[in-house]
Amino acid sequence: MSVARSEVLRLYKSILKYGQELKYTDRDFFKKKIRKEFRSCKKVESPEEIKFHIDRAKAFLQYKRVLAILLRQTIDYSKVPVLKEEDIEEQFVKGHGPGGQNVNKRSNCVLLKHIPTGLVVKCHQSRLLEKNRKFARDSLIEKLDLLVNGEDSVANQKKRIEEKKSSKNETKRRKLQELKAAWKEREQNDVRTMPLFKSSLLSSIIPLNFQPSRSIATIDYSRIPTLNEEDLEEQIIRGSGTHKRTNCILLIHKPTGIVVKGTKSRNLIENRKIAREILIEKLDEKLNGDQSVAAQKRRIESRKISSRESKRNKMQLLKEAWKDNK
């Protein structure tokens, strides 16, 4: 597909022209973005990609035009005051800010004064004098509109439209949060409404506070040995990382001779609890072997990993088959 250079240039100019209608702070960014996009498309040679980019630019322009028409229908521009050149006092002065010698030597900053109202506007948005003159007049018209029309000015109308939109979004968000909170409360308070417990027989047998869990259903906790305090020999020593306080717990299980050291926390009570939990886990592994809780968890984790791996392999095979068919 061969696209005429004139068509591309027309699109480029139209999009840049739309950028001039943006706020002053957005114009430079928009211009740089559009230039970057068009430059990146120079190397495109595929007809499909060229057509895609052309259609994309046209769709962007069409959408912005429709949006502008809809916005103009809701905003009243009839009261915007007309700026007369005889009511303006214009001066060209030196600007400030980045730009090097161009700013220091050239007087391309525009200073406008509206004689009837005394409004003063200073504009140095661009390096070009003509652009600054246009921007200064636009800014002066906006200020005049605010001064003369007040609440009926274009800026205030746009502000009210934005506030309405934000309030609508806020009400939608609040309603959604209320619905989510109500749903969570209903699910927590009435487990019988779950699809698993539709049967009246099951709902009469299973208590309301029951919450099914895969890990509880698949792991057997009945064989965990109980820990008797008389079988323990406890010592409080200094840990390897702490030198000032003796907050490390050393536990010795007399019947089996298992030694456990707990120094994960700075708190002595927490370390006592942690040491006992580690000792119970080691006792469980020694007495129950493959039926211990840790071994059961390892088996479940290995099954999960293997199932994920098999799914990944299947997806890879499907992708390869799809590529071959394509």
Automatic annotation (TrEMBL):
- Basic and acidic residues bias spans: 298-311
This protein's UniProt keywords: Mitochondrion, Transit peptide
**Family per similarity comment:** Belongs to the prokaryotic/mitochondrial release factor family.
Q: Which organism is it from?
A: Cloeon dipterum
Ranges for the region named Disordered are 291-311
Q: What is this protein called?
A: Prokaryotic-type class I peptide chain release factors domain-containing protein
Domain named Prokaryotic-type class I peptide chain release factors: residues: 83-178, 226-318
Keyword Hydrolase listed:
no
- Identify the Pfam families for this entry: Complex1_LYR, RF-1
